[in-house]
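subagent[fold] <- orchestrator: predict structure for attached chain, return tokens only, no commentary.
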Amino acid sequence: MKKILIPILMSIIIFTIFIPITSTLTSYLHPVVLVVLFFCIFVVNLAIYLFVTKQQLVVRRPFLIGAFILYTLSLLVLLFMRPSEPAYDNSNLVPFKTISLYLSGNADWFVSFYNLAANVGLFVPFGVLLAFWTRRFLIRVFLPFALVSCIEITQLLTNRGSLDIDDLILNVLGFYIGYALVPLVRRIVEIK
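subagent[fold] -> orchestrator:
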């Protein structure tokens, strides 16, 4: 318990400092975004703390599976249940069009930062999980494309989001970053 107390306190402080900015996310995303954001801040703080102090956290497999189920459900809520459902009748099949818009400075900086960071960062845990689950190269390469493509197509068909090739690119990049972080995760987490 002592191993997570300091990261929890640091996460609460960071989350509280940025709440005036992050609370604006609830105007166009489900309020669960704040829970997911806090969870992400906590995981990053915990990882940094464990790495710096050279400690390891023992996590039981059932707890890990439960946490990933809750995380996945939260992510699905964010993707498909928005409070102010705008009409999504547009699609982007031009690679890097949306990313270029966000990086150009012609869009609101916070919206740009959140969309780029979230589209990558929210899928990093799935990359870590997939790397622990299988070592098969083809599965690691193609499963992220298949999963994210299903999400994008479902958003289009249900009119709960727009089909955007840039979301696919960024989400898959998140998976691949997760793969790269596995050696670090193995140093700080032991799964029982």
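orchestrator: received. Logging for downstream: The chain has a mean pLDDT of 91. Strands lie at 57-59, 91-92, 163-164, 189-191.
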